[in-house]
């Protein structure tokens, strides 16, 4: 549980400005709305990943059974995003961000430089609630289904992060591209996304298109390129989602760009989704690209991607 808990806690902290500089900038410079969008984007990515893997897949658990399994094989966004979602759920129960930060700080002080398991995490959380929220502790602790969150697969249906104010606007804009009966976007809508300084707005827009990729045609993808110039983006988050969408709908004009991207970027977060989509279209081509880049990628990355192309 140490891996799942620590990654989830780290992500939760970063979202609140205690860790990673980028996320601290999001909350402090761009504000609460941008932070909420970042959280919801992670939740959306988690939902799509679990749907693709299957609700009952062992690796969608926060504490999967890895006996006899290479842990790298189970690596995904699950521990990061599902772990963070669990902490957001606990935060909602204890009374919000300020109180939960007190717990996180106490937790870190208490377990600094140690590894723990899920039972220790649960025991410490329950004792902290008893000590710091005595009047509310019975209601809080009786509400939590620990087995649902830690031991069962899939996406728990008991909690989801609040929808950011911009979500419906971004969903509506995406819908105008994948729904033939919709009116084309207004110039003001195009300009708002083009000039957005929040990359998560662009990623959320592309995420909606990916979710509805069966309704996105090649002509629509070409229109998206004319409207937003995704092909020439320098942002790996944007390019990863854009390339995945292009692969899914068969937009072969970006093939050379994808090859170049896979040859210069080695982070699993960005290359694994692309290889997954390539494996669905042309495994031999995906294997050719992996072989071409093996010496560049970390051995762990290679070990995670190879099984995908052999399935």
Describe this structure in words.
The structure is a single chain. By secondary structure, this protein is mostly helical. Helices cover 68% and strands 0% of the residues. α3 packs across α4 and α9 packs across α11. The longest helix is centred in the N-terminal third of the chain and has 22 residues, at 32-53. The radius of gyration is 21 Å and the shape is globular. The model is unreliable at 1-5 and 8-24 (pLDDT under 50).
Termini distance? 28 Å
Characterize the main sheet: none
Amount of beta strand: under 5%
- The percent of residues in helical segments reads 55-70%
Q: What's the helix count? A: 17
Structural class: mainly alpha
| Shape field | globular
Q: Unreliable stretches, pLDDT < 50, 5 or more residues?
A: 1-5, 8-24
Q: Count of DSSP E strands?
A: 0
Radius of gyration: 21 Å
Please tell me the overall pLDDT: 89
User: What oligomeric state do the depicted chains represent?
Assistant: single chain
Order of helices and strands: HHHHHHHHHHHHHHHHH
């Amino acid at each position: 549980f140490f891996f799942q808990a620590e990654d989830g806690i780290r992500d939760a902290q970063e979202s609140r400005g205690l860790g990673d500089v980028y996320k601290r900038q999001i909350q402090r410079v761009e504000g609460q709305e941008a932070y909420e969008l970042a959280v919801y984007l992670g939740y959306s990515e988690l939902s799509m990943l679990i749907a693709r893997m299957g609700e009952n897949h062992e690796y969608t658990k926060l504490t999967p059974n890895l006996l006899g399994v290479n842990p790298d094989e189970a690596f995904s966004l699950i521990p990061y995003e599902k772990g963070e979602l669990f902490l957001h759920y606990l935060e909602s129960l204890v009374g919000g961000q300020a109180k939960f930060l007190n717990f996180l700080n106490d937790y870190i002080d208490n377990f600094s430089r140690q590894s723990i398991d899920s039972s220790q995490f649960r025991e410490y959380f329950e004792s902290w609630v008893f000590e710091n929220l005595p009047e509310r502790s019975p209601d809080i602790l009786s509400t939590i289904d620990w087995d649902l969150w830690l031991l069962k697969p899939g996406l728990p249906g008991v909690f989801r992060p609040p929808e950011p104010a911009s979500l419906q606007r971004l969903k509506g804009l995406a819908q105008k591209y994948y729904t033939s009966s919709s009116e084309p976007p207004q110039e003001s809508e195009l300009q708002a996304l083009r000039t957005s300084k929040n990359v998560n707005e662009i990623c959320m827009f592309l995420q909606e298109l990916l979710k509805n990729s069966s309704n996105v045609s090649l002509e629509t993808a070409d229109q998206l390129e004319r409207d937003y110039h995704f092909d020439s983006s320098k942002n790996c988050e944007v390019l990863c989602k854009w390339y995945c969408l292009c692969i899914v709908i068969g937009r072969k004009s970006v093939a050379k760009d994808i090859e170049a991207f896979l040859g210069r970027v080695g982070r699993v977060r960005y290359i694994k989704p692309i290889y997954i989509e390539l494996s669905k279209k042309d495994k031999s081509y995906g294997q050719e690209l992996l072989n071409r880049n093996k010496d560049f990628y970390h051995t762990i990355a290679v070990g995670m991607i190879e099984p995908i192309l052999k399935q």
